[in-house]
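Troubleshooting: if your tokenizer reports a length mismatch, compare against these two reference records.
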Amino acid sequence: MVEKRVQPLARDAMAYVLAGGRGSRLKELTDRRAKPAVYFGGKTRIIDFALSNALNSGIRRIGVATQYKAHSLIRHMQRGWNFFRPERNESFDILPASQRVSETQWYEGTADAVYQNIDIIEDYGVEYMVILAGDHVYKMDYEYMLQQHVDSGADVTIGCLEVPRMEAVGFGVMHVDTTDRIIDFVEKPADPPGIPGNPDFALASMGIYVFHTKFLIDALRRDAADPNSSKDFGKDIIPHIVKNGKAVAHRFAQSCVRSDFEHEPYWRDVGTIDAYWQANIDLTAVVPELDIYDKSWPIWTYAEISPPAKFVHDDESRRGSATSSVVAGDCIISGATLHRSLLFTGVRANSYSKLDGAVVLPSVKIGRHAQLSNVVIDHGVIIPEGLIVGEDPVLDAKRFRRSEGGICLITQPMIDKLGM
């Protein structure tokens, strides 16, 4: 890994987070909130990872473009990300789709979500733009990517994951030469191109792009004037640069932030119920693949004021206990048993209930004698006494959203239909 410059480039950069996506594969979890606003890891939201990466990298100007069901996301950012100070040359802008270009035009694509705010970007006069997706879980120091961008003389530098070649069929894939210059960009190819010297792996786009600001603005204006464009970075902007300019791949392993306990670069798209459940449950391991306890790279979020977690009752059949679990503040485990579960703030688990492989979002109340295995329970759900989930797949699928991997998503409307 190259050493950082004395004067960080991040100080002259703006991070622009694209957080307007619906995340429809998360089903009912995104009925009331955009994917970046979905809870993750006990107390954070998914978007906190991209925002924390930018802040920890030294970037002090951040914009977040929102669109789909943005209230929960905007409220979270207003509460948790309101500490930027203009007098320190810092800024944090929430940029909802607001018909600023046309009275009938919302954000039409990822590129359009930046294009419609060009005047705001120009006002800050930053030298570099770091375009980020707001819906992935990872730790990354963008300063290294900025340095590579400047040193290589690229028009665009694209963050890439090294993945087994045939696992790349669902990504945008970079075909690179031996210098990591991108010679072709293929969207979800059936036969992904391998990496030179490592043909069993492919370079998949992370949706992270670095530009010189002036170049990006020129590219966005050219694209906006094209009536045939879909106004999207992956479909329009990037392929045009690959063909007519210089696009370079940046490998995530070069800038991934790892503590002493993290052995492999960690990046997750938690865009399905199964992936979301697994990434949360992974945090309950003795040594999880993602270290959220690393104080040198904190994940900033809304620091809710809450009392400590509490475990009560110590009878043989009614003991408040948790093994291999993560329990947030303001939880009361009252004679309930938890194993390999993750509980967000304010959960109440009542006597004789048992949770195994449960991801429980904030303010859930779990009734007595409930037995819940391999579940995701949405915010504020009241689980009735004696409910059993995870033992009868056919019955579970009739009552709840059961994923291909056997995980049941439980929401309050689903509970209400049971009439219990």
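Reference record two:
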Amino acid sequence: MTEQEIERDMYARAVALIEERYPTGWGGAAVLRAEDGRCFTSVALENANSSVLLCIEVGAMCEAHKYNVKATHCLCVVRDDEHGPFKVLSPCGVCQERLRYWGAEVKVGVTTPDGALRFVPLGELQPYHWTAAYPEEELERFGR
């Protein structure tokens, strides 16, 4: 698959999951693509106590980690209700740190002013990441 085909496929998977899991009202889904071509999907963990909620992408990240595969792409899509447009959400700072486990080259879907589907490497999203203070071999013990 080309890079554009991968990105469009991920978007289609996220939209399909939102439409299935959340037929009415708000909905959000994430897709994480692994180096071996597998895709893992997830939704936000809902709870009455908002302090224990997790980001939409976390379930997919945990699945990739469980199967010990390297993530190459991550995308989060939401809509406000069943009549609203789908929107790409850039990963929050915590999810950027979680994805960084697989390295600065992981591509993430980002929010754009025109709503276009766009992916950038984490290294571009975080050009001054704290890991630059350490040699690569030292960071390898954390899974990369």
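Descriptive notes for reference record two:
- The radius of gyration is 15 Å.
- The helical segments are 3-21, 58-66, 93-99, 122-125, 136-139.
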